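User: Here's a chain of 202 residues. Predict its fold as tokens.
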Amino acid sequence: MDATSSIAKPRNLKTSFVKQGEKHLKTVGVSEFSLREVAKSLEVSHMAAYKHFSNKNELLCEIGALGFSRLIKKFDVILEKEDAVFQRLDQIFHVFLDLAIDSPDLCHLMLGGEIDSQSMSKPFLKKIESCKAVFEEVLSHAQENGEVRPVKIATLQLSIWSTITGFIMSILNGTYPGEMTKEALEASVEDLLGMWLIGAAE
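Assistant: Prediction complete.
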């Protein structure tokens, strides 16, 4: 069996495109991402890609959805612990920070609006909502324990989501005003989260 046949079996070609697409994304970024180049690296015709993806945005959505799936698995571990709201949100915040540091292009794809809302696939949107639902669970638990104000969960969810994603995007876009070492960024996470919690608890 040659290399091409081992990669391009119909039953796993779509998965191969997603995995290879993620590697390609890490190399060239979203702006230079090419469905044709991914197919080339898999040693299949670019037409084979269109059997699974109508355009590169669909493949990018699959890659983004995979990224969110990994985050959610990490969040599930966090939710298993009966920690206070600060500890839970701090751990979640650090998961996002690690993603931004280790896989900035993937993180930018997931959070940076690289795919316009009209082009987002249903699985991708579902993963985003599943990710946001983690915050709903954390904040609902915090309200039950009297750790945050009894306001609408959706309001608290939006505020912490905006805080986290805004901070992460400032790192990815190069607009973060502070020191960019991991230690300094981790310290900023503590400060931001502390300020958010003061406002949410008042």
